């Protein structure tokens, strides 16, 4: 959301505020610092061993009085997290319109990814403006019955942020020098395999299998595996247990955003289960192997810039070795077009918000009898607002 927040702040006629939930505090603070952002509201909801229901409840009860006090015309949420869905519902219960960034991603399997597939579907029901990253995502929303004039293909804002940061890193200066010094231990004679993993669906046996594959790949002397290990104990436990002493495998702490972008630019290929990285890697011309059974970003697979290798060790190893040992395979994946946008998504979203008619707000209190509207309810026009707030 960072590039969109910046674009909103630069737009005339918009008053915008930023609310964060405080999940993954260190990573959040790093990203806010990297983009020089400040939160107007910080819910600070995280507590040890919270269930998904507790997180969901904390977001809703935390953001509700903020929405009531600020009374925005839109609440903008991104992606498929509990935060996005809870905030969208809280806005809906206050009769505030919702703009969903990265809307329309679908696997078709409610249990994979879990619970993200359900989160994004529920969010769509209460969304007024659906900002789809691709034509495929737009088609998915149209098939579900959402009105065509409420679904706008923008590309994904993650590409906006990535290209901005990559350009900053490429410029001679303190940022680049500090990154080169910090990662001077990287062996330039070896190809860098960058790994990330955090998906809840892989907790347990999935991560054990991923570690088995990385241990096998690490036996090669022509590569370095760099794995910034997620803070979740369900990830850190198996990763450190299985890979602490593995050859050519470097387990490091989570990276701030500039550091991660820098390592992506240095990498030869990327192994990940991250949705965002499936979009970012092609923008940097880096082949990406996806360690999941399904993906809601099949555009990358169809474009030939990503491949699904699941968490099966044999498939992961085979996929990596194919890219390492067959130059033509690596070149083909590196040169494919990125289907997720060209870095203008934030500007397109702001343009839409400034030009769309303000949706009607019901004058009656919402009751349990009318909680779920039809998609058509979101498309009713009303007079334009001279200075919308987000």
UniProtKB/TrEMBL annotation:
- The UDP-N-acetylglucosamine 2-epimerase domain covers 8-351
Which PANTHER family does the entry link to? Answer: UDP-N-ACETYLGLUCOSAMINE 2-EPIMERASE (PTHR43174)
- Entry EC no(s): 5.1.3.14
The UniProt annotation puts the region (Disordered) at 359-390
The reactions it catalyses are:
UDP-N-acetyl-alpha-D-glucosamine = UDP-N-acetyl-alpha-D-mannosamine
Q: What is the lineage of its organism?
A: Bacteria, Pseudomonadati, Pseudomonadota, Alphaproteobacteria, Hyphomicrobiales
Similarity field: Belongs to the UDP-N-acetylglucosamine 2-epimerase family.
Q: Which Gene3D superfamilies did the record assign?
A: Glycogen Phosphorylase B
Keyword annotations from UniProtKB, A to Z: Isomerase
- Source domain of life is Bacteria
* Keyword presence, Isomerase: yes
Protein's name according to its UniProt entry: UDP-N-acetylglucosamine 2-epimerase (non-hydrolyzing)
Keyword Isomerase in record: yes
Record field: compositional bias (Pro residues): 381-390
């Amino acid at each position: 959301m960072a590039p969109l927040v910046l674009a909103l702040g630069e737009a005339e006629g918009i008053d915008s505020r930023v609310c964060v939930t405080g999940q993954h505090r260190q990573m959040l603070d790093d990203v806010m610092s990297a983009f020089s952002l400040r939160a107007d509201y910080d819910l600070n909801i995280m507590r040890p061993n919270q269930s998904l229901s507790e997180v969901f409840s904390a977001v809703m009860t935390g953001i509700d009085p903020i929405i009531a006090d600020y009374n925005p015309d839109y609440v903008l949420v991104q992606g498929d997290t509990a935060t996005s869905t809870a905030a969208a519902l809280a806005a809906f219960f206050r009769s505030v319109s919702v703009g969903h960034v990265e809307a329309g991603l679908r696997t078709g399997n409610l249990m994979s990814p879990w619970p993200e597939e359900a989160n994004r579907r529920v969010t769509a029901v209460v969304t007024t403006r659906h900002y789809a990253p691709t034509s495929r995502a737009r088609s998915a929303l149209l098939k579900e019955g959402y009105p065509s004039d409420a679904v706008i293909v923008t590309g994904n804002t993650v590409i906006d942020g990535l290209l901005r940061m990559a350009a900053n890193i490429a410029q001679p200066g303190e940022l680049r020098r500090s990154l080169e010094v910090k990662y001077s231990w990287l062996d330039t004679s070896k190809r860098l395999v960058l790994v990330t993993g955090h998906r809840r669906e892989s907790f347990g046996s999935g991560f054990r299998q991923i570690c088995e594959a990385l241990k096998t790949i690490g036996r090669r002397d022509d590569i370095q595996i760099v794995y910034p290990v997620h803070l979740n104990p369900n990830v850190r436990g198996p990763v450190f247990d299985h890979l602490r002493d593995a050859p050519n495998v470097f387990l490091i702490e989570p990276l701030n955003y500039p550091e991660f972008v820098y390592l992506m630019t240095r990498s030869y290929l990327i192994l990940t289960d991250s949705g965002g990285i499936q979009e970012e890697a092609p923008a940097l011309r880096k082949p990406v192997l996806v360690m999941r059974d399904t993906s809601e970003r099949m555009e990358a697979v169809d474009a030939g810039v990503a491949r699904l290798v699941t968490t099966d060790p044999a498939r992961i190893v085979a996929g990596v070795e194919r890219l390492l040992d067959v130059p033509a395979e690596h070149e083909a994946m590196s040169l494919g077009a990125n289907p997720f946008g060209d870095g203008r998504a934030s500007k397109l979203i702001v343009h839409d918000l400034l030009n769309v008619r303000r949706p009607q707000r019901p004058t009656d209190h919402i009751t349990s009898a009318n909680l779920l509207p039809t998609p058509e309810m979101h498309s009713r026009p009303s007079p334009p607002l001279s200075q919308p707030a987000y």
